[in-house]
């Protein structure tokens, strides 16, 4: 994940193009509004499209899956909005929204893995409402925590993998084709992200498209397995 230099900056500080991505020097004009990084900006709709597909096609079978679905959709919308504004305007507050969306999305996937093995009904509101609000509050009012974002994400992803393996061993969780597609999309997207970050070629927009797909595949995988477990 890209971590901006926060030295001497506030929420409304604007970043210079040289600090950011390969496409950062590109601009376009949309209805009189200057937009940086047109490809990176408009491919953020991949996230919003995934959220819409999940909201329309997904069917909750109990309170747990319903709460997780609602949190997931909200998280992806926040991610899409933050990505759109961050790449389009290069203002710090939009990067914060972008990171909040990413963290909430990964956090919801973690709850999905936990739900395969443990009954979280008794603390469902705490996990799916109070903790997300706390994450948003901390990020906005202690925004310099952003410099630890990679550590936070590595820990969260590690917990995801740990609970997934636990559910596979003790609860028969299947590594179905959707989870494999999601993982492959994520890995390929990360390769494009690295190439772009090294300023070799402007490929960051493929990261948006592929992670948008992985977000969708991971949810389909969860819903499929969760339905089997309850059925």
UniProtKB/TrEMBL annotation:
Keywords: Membrane, Transmembrane, Transmembrane helix
Coiled coil feature spans: none
Keyword Transmembrane in record: yes
Residues annotated as transmembrane: 39-58, 70-88, 100-116, 122-141, 148-166, 178-195, 207-226
Lyase in keyword set: no
Identification of the protein by name: Ceramidase
Organism name: marine metagenome
